[in-house]
Specification:
Blueprint: H1 3-21, H2 28-47, H3 53-64, H4 71-74, H5 83-105, H6 113-119
């Protein structure tokens, strides 16, 4: 399968985030060099053809967004992670889960249960 692709891409992203978290201690020239290296590794990974449908979808998405993947490495004003976005979404997720739980405790509604189960 495409386990190798997922593991390799995960390692690449972890390396990039690690660099992003150390940016303050690195020079602009060093960051540009790291970004070029990350982009070369990314391109080598994306050049391989995934075997599974999920691997192909992931590869297509990464190809579509490849120019934006490592912006944070050289732009110090862009955070290395999306933790802020995650924290902003959290109240919505909690509310959705709470509402889904409450509806699931009420008398069954054949029209609503499949929708809730697919989004919970």
């Amino acid at each position: 399968g495409d386990w190798w692709f997922a593991l390799a891409f995960k390692a690449l992203l972890k390396r990039a985030i690690g660099i992003g978290q150390r940016r303050e201690a690195l020079t602009d020239a060093t960051l540009k060099s790291y970004r070029r290296d990350l982009e070369r590794q990314r391109d080598r990974l994306l050049a391989r053809n995934p075997v599974t449908e999920d691997g192909a979808k992931f590869s297509a998405a990464m190809t579509r967004w490849k120019d934006s993947l490592f912006v944070f490495v050289t732009r110090r004003d862009v955070p290395a992670t999306n933790n802020v976005s995650e924290r902003q979404l959290r109240p919505s997720v909690i509310f959705r889960n709470y509402v889904a739980h409450r509806i699931m405790q009420s008398p069954p509604s054949p029209d609503l249960r499949p929708i809730l189960l697919s989004t919970a």
